[in-house]
Amino acid sequence: MKSRKVLVLALAMMVWLAGLGMASDGYAEDFNVGGRFGIGAQLNLLNFGVGPSVEYWLTDNIGISASYGALSDFTSYGIRGNYLFDGNLDLFGLPARPYIGAGFSSVTLEGVFSTSKGTGIEIYGGVLEQASENIYLRSELIYSTVDFTSNDYIDYGAFSLGFGIVYYF
Description:
- By secondary structure, the chain is mostly beta strands.
- The protein is 11% helix and 57% strand.
- An 8-stranded antiparallel barrel has the order 2-3-4-5-7-8-9-10.
- The longest helix is centred in the N-terminal third of the chain and has 19 residues, at 2-20.
- Mean pLDDT is 80; it is low at 15-28.
């Protein structure tokens, strides 16, 4: 229960801090993802994933995405729903918008002693940053409820950091 309170607080802080940097003018005409399909690559720093991702933005605020991750003996799959907030902020000189979302995740470890599997819900928040007209960068804090235990003494943590790059058509 304590970790859930920490997650809610962390996500609230991210949204609040992002709101402090929101600009009333500038990039709004250029930062449009609605109706766009994207392919990309993602990296999960703490929970063993690197791989491709696809996403589609139904509107400028609502999107869906799917990902596959693999590293060593780990394999993960995810399906997500995303909400991108209106308003832009200037992040390192590039336009960016904060987002939140939730989704389903499945993780498998083909270990030395056994095969371990876990599934659960992911809740996350982050920033989508526009590097060019078609290239966007993503960074996020993820909380996962994946119930994952292994006889190989590897722990799948509840919190992780994710990064990605997406090319939108």
